[in-house]
């Protein structure tokens, strides 16, 4: 019985509303506040990465006109841009931001199961970002090793930031992993343990499924980055030879003996490939919910969607070496990884079919979140198809290290997830702030970003097929195989990139202005079924649900149920004559 | 990397199996409308589940370290014919490690007995055994420190030898996990000493601490076996 008493105490704690400003907004244990803290920091550091990309594009597009950055700065920016966007923006925003906000609300819980650890997770994340930024101020500046941080060049003199910069980067990553582990434990345990009455696994919205599986992937994959960060730090600081081979640098033999740079590549990509899905799976989940809600149709093939998420999660651990085809591996290894890479395309394709079939003959409302969701389907198919090229060894070898790769991964894990991020922010903005955003500005933001992204990345495919190498500071006339059209393409790409970057300011203006001046939002403006829209207050107060927790009676996709007075039935509405049982899991009942 | 693949397969297998067993096969639409399926609210076992998930993370960490160890030792399968790394010079593991292993086993046994005492509501026994378990673990760490010293002052010591570097990394990472455990142990012990805290309130803490202790003992036995055999 004593255990029950302890559980009750937690319950009371969750209902206790903190009063002071600091406890409420800064040193807060409330999952919603932590989510917003995560989102704000991620956006801030994301803007830094965006600015760096503009500076790089100025250099690439107009090398003779704008001479703002030096070659070593170009490498530093390219490194920081990649790392920030993948880890500190997308991972943090999807899991720390949306994960934190949505899991308890969608599952009918009061908070995460370990609120204190959740709070620590954010503060460690902030520390990781600060250590990363500190890299700009140490002697030599941040590391310019490329976001993959491959040794030996990452720690050899000649690479920018090879002394202090790389240490800041590795330390920051290690701190981030600690932060993520604390957050991830929370997300997974909350999904397993804190669902409200009636919320079975197969009634969870797909957003939660995506975030849940991504958290599991993160918990198992981030240790690989942690291991490599520790060992590379030791190589750099005390001169061990885990990764550093016997090399001469600047004409002098280094102290290192027979270390293995390939070992680093294996460890890095053992983390790096699941990382793609750590970013993609939450996007998959969220976009499913956006499509279903704004097309007023139940998600097509819910069970298949869940299984696809699980299958992608498992398979993502056995494809890592497709990033290493040109590392001199045994051809049988390449064959194995090409095969697994093609296999993982199957559940991914299933998801794409299901999204398209969800909106097929639906009552599609072209709201701003829906535009972004549809934009995601297009972009993800485009990026996915080029993945088939790069996943095959023989096609990958000539394309490796060219702009084709840059175009592919920007489409599939840059633009696609960020479109979902935008869609999700617009979708949940009324719930988070209690205000509506400006629809016209939102649509402007969508069209400029969507078309602009294609203007930036489509020409890069062409450049890649021509063999234009990536990571170059400039393409002088001495490189004769590059035709003038590439230079023209670079100019247009740069102009497009700057327009897209400027459009993001409109987005930020919309968010900030609407927060103060936007019309007050209804509690459920999209007429959605999931629990977060059924809270007694908007924005939800501490504890989320007032005195009583909700009880779930149906799945998350009861849209357009025949016989129902409205075209949606929330999850917490019991079955009755007026609110009949829907087509749970697509099965007529 | 084969170890890691095996681990990943195992871990994902467990996840899939657990989900299968739990609810994936449920067909809630077959249930009557009135009977909402049972689901848990805040439950004290969240802490237990949280610990097990954390142990999965730590398992991942050590498996990856060991994968790196074997790969660095034999260079790479998949990249030409396997050959031994030329700079790997095996070291003689300090004898004191055997003594330390016994200490950690005793620590784990004592922790288990503390768990048994708390289940039987024996206040004094719990305190004594909990204290003894912490002391034995502390002694293990001191023993590890002596082992590090021994290698430090041996003629084989050089950070350039990957066998030496791995020895330190593996044992220090394990020791840091034990230190983290000792912090939790310290909090648990302090609560067990307080007069205003009922023994039943520390029961879960003792139980989870003992699970963590057994787990780190297993990790140590695995690490020790690998170190001895190479």
Verbal overview:
The complex is a heterodimer of chains A (589) and B (230). Chain A is an all-alpha fold and 589 residues long. Chain A has 15 helices and 2 strands. Chain A has 3 domains: 25-195 and 205-247, Cytochrome C Oxidase, Chain A (Up-down Bundle); 292-520, Cytochrome c oxidase-like, subunit I domain (Cytochrome C Oxidase, Chain A, Up-down Bundle), CATH 1.20.210; 522-589, no CATH class. In chain A, strands 1-2 form a two-stranded antiparallel ribbon. Residues 1-10 of chain A have low confidence and may be disordered. Chain B is mainly α. Chain B has a domain at 94-229: Four Helix Bundle (Hemerythrin (Met), subunit A) (Up-down Bundle). Helices cover 74% and strands 0% of the residues of chain B. The two termini of chain B are 17 Å apart. Mean pLDDT of chain B is 84; it is low at 31-43. At the A-B interface, helix 1, helix 6, helix 7, helix 8 and helix 9 of A face helix 1, helix 2, helix 5 and helix 6 of B.
Features:
heterodimer, A: 589 residues, mainly alpha, Cytochrome C Oxidase, Chain A, 3 domains, two-stranded antiparallel sheet, 15 helices, disordered N terminus, B: 230 residues, Four Helix Bundle (Hemerythrin (Met), subunit A)
Largest sheet of chain A: 2 strands, antiparallel
End-to-end C-alpha gap of chain B: 17 Å
Q: Strand arrangement, largest sheet of chain A?
A: 1-2
Range of strand content of chain A: under 5%
Mean pLDDT of chain B, rounded to whole units? 84
Instruction: Assign the CATH topology of the domain at 94-229 in chain B.
Output: Four Helix Bundle (Hemerythrin (Met), subunit A)
Provide the CATH topology of the largest domain in chain A: Cytochrome C Oxidase, Chain A
Helix and strand content put the structural class of chain B at mainly alpha
Outline the biggest β-sheet of chain B: none
| Largest interchain contact | A-B, 82 and 64 residues
Cα shape of chain B? flat
Distance between the termini of chain A: 40 Å
| Helix-strand makeup class of chain A | mainly alpha
Extract low-pLDDT stretches of chain B: 31-43
CATH architecture of the domain at 94-229 in chain B: Up-down Bundle
Query: What is the overall shape of chain A?
Result: globular
As for the number of domains of chain A, it is 3
């Amino acid at each position: 019985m004593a255990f029950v008493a302890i559980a009750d105490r937690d319950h009371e704690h969750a209902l206790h509303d903190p009063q002071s400003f600091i406890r409420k907004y800064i040193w807060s244990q409330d999952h919603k506040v932590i989510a917003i803290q995560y989102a704000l920091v991620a956006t801030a550091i994301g803007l830094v990465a965006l600015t760096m990309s503009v500076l790089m594009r100025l250099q690439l597009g107009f090398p003779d006109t704008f001479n703002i950055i030096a070659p070593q700065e170009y490498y530093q920016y390219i490194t920081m841009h990649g790392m920030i966007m993948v880890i500190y923006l997308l991972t943090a925003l999807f899991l720390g931001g949306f994960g934190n906000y949505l899991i308890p609300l969608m599952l009918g819980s009061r908070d995460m199961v370990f609120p204190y650890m959740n709070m620590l997770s954010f503060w460690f994340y902030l520390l990781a970002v600060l250590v990363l930024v500190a890299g700009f101020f140490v002697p030599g500046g941040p590391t310019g090793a490329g976001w993959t941080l491959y040794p030996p060049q990452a720690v050899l003199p000649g690479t920018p930031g090879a002394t202090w910069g790389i240490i800041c980067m590795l330390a920051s990553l290690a701190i981030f992993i600690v932060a993520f582990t604390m957050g991830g434990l929370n997300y997974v345990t909350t999904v397993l343990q804190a669902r409200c009455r009636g919320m079975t696994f197969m009634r969870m919205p797909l957003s939660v499924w995506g975030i849940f599986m991504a958290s599991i992937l993160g918990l198992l994959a981030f240790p690989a980055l942690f291991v490599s960060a520790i060992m590379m730090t030791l190589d750099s600081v005390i001169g061990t030879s885990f990764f550093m081979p016997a090399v001469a640098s600047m004409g002098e033999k280094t102290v290192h003996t027979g270390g293995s740079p390939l070992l680093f590549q294996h460890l890095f990509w053992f983390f790096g490939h699941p990382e793609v899905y750590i970013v993609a799976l939450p996007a998959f989940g969220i976009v499913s919910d956006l499509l279903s809600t704004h097309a007023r149709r139940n998600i097509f093939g819910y069970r298949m969607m869940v299984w696809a998420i699980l299958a992608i999660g498992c398979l993502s651990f056995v494809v890592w070496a497709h990033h290493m085809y040109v590392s001199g591996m045994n051809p049988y290894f390449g064959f194995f990884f090409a095969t697994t890479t093609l296999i993982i395309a199957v559940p991914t394709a299933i998801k794409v079919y299901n999204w398209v079939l969800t909106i097929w003959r639906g009552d599609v409302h072209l709201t701003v979140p829906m535009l972004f969701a549809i934009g995601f389907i297009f972009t993800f198919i485009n990026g996915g198809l080029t993945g088939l090229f790069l996943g095959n060894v023989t096609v990958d070898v000539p394309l490796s290290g060219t702009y084709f790769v840059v175009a592919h991964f920007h489409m599939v894990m840059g633009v696609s997830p960020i479109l979902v991020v935008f869609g999700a922010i617009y979708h949940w903005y009324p719930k988070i702030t209690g205000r509506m955003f400006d629809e016209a500005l939102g649509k402007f933001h969508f069209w400029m970003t969507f078309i602009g992204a294609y203007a930036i990345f489509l020409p890069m495919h062409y450049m890649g097929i021509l063999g234009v190498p990536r990571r170059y500071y400039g393409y002088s006339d001495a490189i004769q195989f590059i035709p003038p059209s590439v230079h023209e393409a670079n100019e247009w790409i740069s102009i497009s990139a700057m327009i897209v970057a400027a459009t993001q300011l409109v987005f930020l203006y919309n968010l900030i202005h609407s927060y103060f001046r936007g019309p007050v939002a209804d509690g459920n403006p999209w007429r959605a079924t999931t629990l977060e829209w059924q809270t007694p207050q908007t924005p939800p107060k501490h504890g989320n649900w007032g005195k009583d927790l909700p009880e779930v009676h149906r799945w998350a996709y009861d849209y357009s149920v025949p016989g129902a007075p409205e075209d949606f039935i929330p999850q917490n509405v019991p079955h009755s004559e007026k609110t009949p049982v829907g087509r749970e899991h697509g099965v007529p009942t | 990397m084969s170890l890691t693949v095996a681990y990943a397969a195992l871990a994902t297998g467990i996840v899939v199996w657990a989900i299968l067993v739990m609810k994936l096969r449920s067909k809630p639409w077959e249930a009557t409308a009135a009977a909402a399926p049972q689901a848990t609210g805040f439950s004290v076992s969240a802490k237990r589940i949280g610990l097990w998930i954390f142990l999965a993370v730590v398992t991942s960490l050590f498996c990856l370290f060991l994968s790196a160890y074997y790969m660095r030792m034999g260079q790479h399968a998949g990249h030409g014919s396997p050959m031994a790394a030329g700079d790997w010079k095996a070291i003689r593991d300090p004898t004191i490690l055997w003594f330390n292993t016994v200490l950690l086993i005793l620590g784990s046994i004592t922790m288990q007995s503390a768990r048994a005492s708390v289940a039987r509501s024996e206040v004094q026994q719990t305190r004594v055994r909990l204290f003894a378990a912490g002391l034995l673990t502390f002694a293990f760490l001191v023993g590890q420190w002596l082992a590090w010293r021994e290698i430090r002052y041996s003629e084989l010591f050089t950070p350039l030898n990957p066998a030496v570097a791995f020895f330190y990394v593996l044992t220090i990472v394990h020791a840091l996990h034990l230190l983290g455990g000792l912090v939790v142990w310290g909090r648990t012990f302090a609560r067990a000493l307080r007069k205003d805290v009922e023994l039943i309130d520390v029961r879960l803490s003792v139980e989870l601490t003992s699970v963590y202790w057994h787990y780190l003992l297993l990790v140590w036995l695995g690490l020790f076996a690998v170190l001895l055999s190479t």
